[in-house]
C-alpha cells in the first residue's frame, strides 16, 4: 500500500523553488527556429520567417495589411512567412528598432515615418544597402520612384530605404468660397494668395482667408521651397534658412497674419471647419473631410503650390521600407519588399490604405489618375526637393528653428531676428 | 550531513523569508535598482544606444550647465511647481472643507472632483486642447457669449504656462480625498470646546482644522511637488513646449534629448539632476516641517 504523506510548508517551498527554477531555465532556452530559417542570408526559395515592423496605422487599416495583403502574399509565396508587428507611433517604431538592434536583433524589415529617421539610422549603420538588391532585381530600381522621396531614402548616395508611398503638400481651397468672393481660380503666385486672402476674409462666415501655420516645419517648408529657398546646403555645413529668401518667406506669412487675413498662432480656424479658405497641406485632408465634413469635401479643390518669388517647387517625402543590417533573413526580406513594390501590389496597397503612391506608374492608373486631388499631387511630386538630409537636422528643427519661428509668429522677434538667432544656434549643432 | 542541519532554526526561517520575497527582490534589483545604477554610469558617458558607451566623466553635467534650454526648462518647471503646488493644495483643502460640511449631494461632487484624477496626462491634454483655442475653444466661446473677448491662451508665452497651471488644477481630486479623510479624523470635541468658547467659523478653521491637518498638508505638498517636477504628458500634447519654449518643462527636454536625439548619457545626467533637486526639496520640506506640522497636538 502506498504511503500517503501530507505536504508540509518546507516541501511546498522546495517544490515551488524547483518549479520556478525549471521554468526560468526553460524561458532562457533558445527558441527552436523553423527549419531552414535564420541561417545566414537564406535563399529566397528556402522556407523562412521575416519580422516586419510595419507602418503606424489605425487598427482598422492595419487589419487590411494583416488580412487581405498577407493572404495575397501567402498565395504566391508560401515559403516565406511574414510576422507583422504594429507600432503605436513613428517614434515607437524607432525606439523598437533601436532597442532591439542594440541587443543584436531587430525586425528584418521596418517602415519608418519620421523625417530624418532614415538618415539617422543609415548613418549609424543600422540599415543595409539596398543597391545590391536593386542591381540584381530586374523589376525594382530607383527609377521607379519620384526623385525627391527616393533621394531622401539615401545616405551618402547609397539607398538604405525605398519609398513605400509619397508625401508632399499641395494647395487646398474652398471652391464655393472662391466663387462667392468672385475669384476666377486658385492662386498661382504669392501675390495671388494675398489678393485672394483679402477677398475671402471679407466674406461672411470666413474668419481668415488663409490658414497659415508658420511654425509647423512642413507648412513653413512648403512656402520656403516654393519661394526658392533652402534650409541648409547639401553638404550640411552651411545654414541657408536665414538668407534673403528665408526672411522674405517668414515676412510674407507674418504680413498676412498681421493684416488679419491669415490665422494667428493658436487659432483653431481651419479649412476643414469651413472658417478659412486656403491651406497648404498633406493629403490627409481629403480623407478627413470625406469622413468628417462631407459638406467641405464637396467644395474642396486642389492646386499645385503657388509660385514664390524665385522657385515653384515644394518638399517631397515618404514612408520608407528598410532592411536591417542585423537581419539574418535579408534575402527573404527583399523578396517581400520587392513584391510589395511590384506594380499590381503597389496599386492595391495604396487603394486600400489611402496613401499617395510613391511610384509614378501607380499614379498613372485609376483611381489615382482620375481623382481631383491625387492628380494634383502627381503633378506636385514632379517638382519636389527632399528635406535636409543631415544627421542633426531633427534636433535643429525641433529645438531651434521651430521655437524661433514661433517667436516671429507671436511677435516676440522680427523674422530676421528669429532666423538669425536660429541660424547661429544651428551652426553650433552642425 | 544534510545542509539544512547546518542552519539554525532562526537562519532557516530567515532563508524561507528571503526565498518568499525573492521574486520581488529580483524584480527590484533588475528593474529599479539596476537601471538606477546603470543610469548613473550613463550620466558619466556618451551613449547613443547602438555604440558602446564612452566615458566622459562629468562632461554631461558641464554641458548642461552651458545649455540655454536646460536653464529655460528648469525655470519653467520651477515656476509651474511652485505656483501649481500652492494652488492645488489650497484648492483641495478648500474643496474638502466644503464637502465635509455634509451638503446635499456631497458624494456626487466628491466623485466628480475625483474623476479627472483617473485620466492620464495625455487624455487631459487632448481634452483641454478643445478648451483653449482662442477662436472656437470652449472657454473663449463661453466668454464670448458673456460679452468678453477671451485671451489667446496658448499663444502668448506667459499665458501659455498659466493655462497649463490652470489645467493642472483639474486634478486636485486626489489631494481632496486625502484631506477629507484627515478632516474626518479631527476629534469633534475640539470643535465642541471651541463652540463653547464662542469661537467663529474662520477662527475654528485656522486654529483647529488647519493645525490638525498639517501632517496631511505636508504629505500632499511632498507628493504634489514630486508630481509637478515630473509634469510631461499634458504639456507634450497641449503645447509641445511652445510657444517659443515658454512651456518647455524639464521632462519634455529630457525626453527629447534621450529618446528623440539619442543623447542617452546627457539625458541620464538630466535625470540625475532632477532626482537631486527633488530629493533636496523633499528634505528641506521634511526638515522645516518641525516648525509647522503638528502630530496629535504636538509639533513634529
UniProtKB/TrEMBL annotation, chain A:
It comes from Caldilineaceae bacterium SB0675_bin_29. Pfam families: SBP_bac_1. The keyword Plastid does not apply. The chain crosses the membrane at residues 12-33. Signal peptide: none annotated. It comes from the Bacteria. Keywords: Membrane, Transmembrane, Transmembrane helix. This is Extracellular solute-binding protein. The lineage of its organism: Bacteria, Bacillati, Chloroflexota, Caldilineae, Caldilineales. InterPro entries: Bact_solute-bd_prot1, SBP, TAT_signal.
Automatic annotation (TrEMBL), chain B:
Signal peptide: none annotated. The lineage of its organism: Bacteria, Bacillati, Chloroflexota, Caldilineae, Caldilineales. GO terms for biological process: transmembrane transport. GO terms for cellular component: plasma membrane. This is Sugar ABC transporter permease. It is found in: Cell membrane. PROSITE patterns: ABC_TM1. It comes from the Bacteria. Gene3D superfamilies: MetI-like (1.10.3720.10). PANTHER family: ABC TRANSPORTER PERMEASE PROTEIN, ABC TRANSPORTER PERMEASE PROTEIN YESP-RELATED. The keyword Cell membrane applies. Keywords: Cell membrane, Membrane, Transmembrane, Transmembrane helix, Transport. Residues 74-285 form the ABC transmembrane type-1 domain.
Amino acid at each position: 500500500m502506498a504511503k500517503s504523506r501530507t505536504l508540509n510548508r518546507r516541501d511546498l517551498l522546495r517544490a515551488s523553488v524547483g518549479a520556478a527554477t525549471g521554468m526560468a531555465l526553460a524561458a532562457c532556452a533558445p527558441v527552436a527556429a523553423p527549419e531552414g530559417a535564420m541561417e545566414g542570408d537564406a535563399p529566397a526559395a528556402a522556407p523562412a520567417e521575416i519580422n516586419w515592423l510595419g507602418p503606424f496605422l489605425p487598427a482598422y487599416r492595419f487589419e487590411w495589411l494583416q488580412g487581405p495583403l498577407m493572404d495575397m502574399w501567402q498565395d504566391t509565396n508560401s515559403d516565406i512567412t511574414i510576422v507583422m508587428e504594429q507600432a503605436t507611433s513613428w517614434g515607437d517604431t524607432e525606439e523598437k528598432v533601436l532597442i532591439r538592434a542594440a541587443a543584436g536583433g531587430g525586425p528584418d524589415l521596418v517602415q519608418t515615418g519620421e523625417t530624418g529617421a532614415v538618415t539617422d539610422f543609415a548613418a549609424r549603420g543600422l540599415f543595409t544597402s539596398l543597391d545590391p538588391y536593386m542591381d540584381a532585381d530586374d523589376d525594382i530600381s530607383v527609377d521607379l520612384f519620384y526623385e525627391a522621396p527616393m533621394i531622401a531614402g539615401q545616405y551618402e548616395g547609397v539607398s538604405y530605404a525605398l519609398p513605400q508611398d509619397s508625401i508632399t503638400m499641395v494647395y487646398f481651397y474652398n471652391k464655393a468660397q472662391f466663387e462667392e468672393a468672385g475669384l476666377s481660380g486658385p492662386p498661382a503666385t504669392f501675390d495671388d494668395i494675398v489678393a485672394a486672402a483679402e477677398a475671402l476674409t471679407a466674406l461672411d462666415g470666413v474668419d481668415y482667408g488663409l490658414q497659415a501655420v508658420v511654425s509647423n516645419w512642413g507648412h513653413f517648408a512648403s512656402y520656403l521651397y516654393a519661394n526658392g529657398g533652402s534650409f541648409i546646403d547639401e553638404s550640411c555645413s552651411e545654414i541657408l534658412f536665414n538668407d534673403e529668401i528665408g526672411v522674405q518667406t517668414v515676412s510674407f506669412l507674418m504680413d498676412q497674419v498681421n493684416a488679419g487675413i491669415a490665422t494667428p498662432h493658436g487659432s483653431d480656424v481651419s479649412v476643414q471647419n469651413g472658417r478659412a479658405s486656403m491651406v497648404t497641406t498633406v493629403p490627409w485632408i481629403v480623407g478627413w473631410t470625406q469622413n468628417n465634413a462631407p459638406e467641405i469635401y464637396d467644395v474642396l479643390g486642389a492646386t499645385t503650390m503657388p509660385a514664390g518669388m524665385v522657385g515653384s517647387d515644394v518638399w517631397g517625402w515618404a514612408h520608407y521600407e528598410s532592411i536591417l543590417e542585423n537581419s539574418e533573413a535579408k534575402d527573404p526580406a527583399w523578396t517581400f519588399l520587392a513584391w510589395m513594390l511590384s506594380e499590381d501590389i503597389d496599386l492595391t496597397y495604396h487603394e486600400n490604405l489611402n496613401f499617395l503612391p510613391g511610384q509614378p506608374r501607380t499614379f498613372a492608373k485609376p483611381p489615382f489618375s482620375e481623382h481631383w486631388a491625387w492628380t494634383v499631387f502627381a503633378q506636385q511630386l514632379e517638382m519636389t526637393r527632399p528635406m535636409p538630409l543631415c544627421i542633426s537636422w531633427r534636433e535643429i528643427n525641433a529645438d531651434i528653428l521651430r521655437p524661433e519661428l514661433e517667436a516671429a509668429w507671436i511677435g516676440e522677434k522680427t523674422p530676421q531676428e528669429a532666423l538669425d538667432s536660429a541660424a547661429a544656434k544651428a551652426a553650433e549643432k552642425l | 550531513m544534510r545542509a539544512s542541519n547546518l542552519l539554525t532554526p532562526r537562519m532557516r526561517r530567515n532563508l524561507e523569508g528571503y526565498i518568499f520575497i525573492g521574486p520581488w527582490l529580483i524584480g527590484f534589483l533588475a528593474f529599479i535598482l539596476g537601471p538606477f545604477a546603470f543610469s548613473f554610469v550613463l550620466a558619466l558617458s556618451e551613449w547613443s544606444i547602438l555604440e558602446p558607451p564612452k566615458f566622459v566623466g562629468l562632461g554631461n553635467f558641464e554641458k548642461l550647465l552651458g545649455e540655454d534650454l536646460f536653464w529655460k526648462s528648469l525655470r519653467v518647471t520651477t515656476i509651474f511647481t511652485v505656483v501649481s503646488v500652492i494652488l492645488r493644495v489650497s484648492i483641495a483643502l478648500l474643496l474638502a472643507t466644503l464637502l465635509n460640511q455634509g451638503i446635499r449631494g456631497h458624494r456626487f461632487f466628491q466623485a466628480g472632483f475625483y474623476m479627472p484624477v483617473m485620466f492620464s496626462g495625455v487624455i487631459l491634454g487632448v481634452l483641454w486642447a478643445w478648451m483653449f483655442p482662442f477662436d472656437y475653444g470652449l472657454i473663449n466661446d463661453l466668454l464670448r457669449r458673456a460679452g468678453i473677448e477671451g485671451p489667446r491662451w496658448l499663444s502668448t508665452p506667459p499665458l501659455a504656462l498659466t493655462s497649463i497651471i490652470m489645467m493642472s488644477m483639474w486634478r486636485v481630486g486626489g489631494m481632496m480625498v486625502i484631506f477629507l479623510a484627515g478632516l474626518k479624523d479631527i476629534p469633534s470635541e475640539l470643535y465642541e470646546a471651541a463652540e463653547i468658547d464662542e469661537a467663529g467659523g474662520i477662527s475654528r478653521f485656522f486654529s483647529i482644522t488647519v493645525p490638525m491637518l498639517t501632517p496631511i498638508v505636508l504629505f500632499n505638498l511632498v507628493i504634489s511637488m514630486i508630481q509637478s517636477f515630473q509634469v510631461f504628458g499634458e504639456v507634450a500634447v497641449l503645447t509641445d513646449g511652445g510657444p517659443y519654449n515658454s512651456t518647455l518643462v524639464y521632462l519634455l527636454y529630457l525626453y527629447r534629448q534621450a529618446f528623440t536625439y539619442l543623447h542617452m548619457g546627457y539625458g541620464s545626467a538630466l535625470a540625475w539632476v532632477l532626482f537631486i533637486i527633488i530629493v533636496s526639496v523633499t528634505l528641506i520640506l521634511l526638515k522645516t516641517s518641525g516648525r509647522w506640522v503638528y502630530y496629535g497636538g504636538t509639533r513634529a
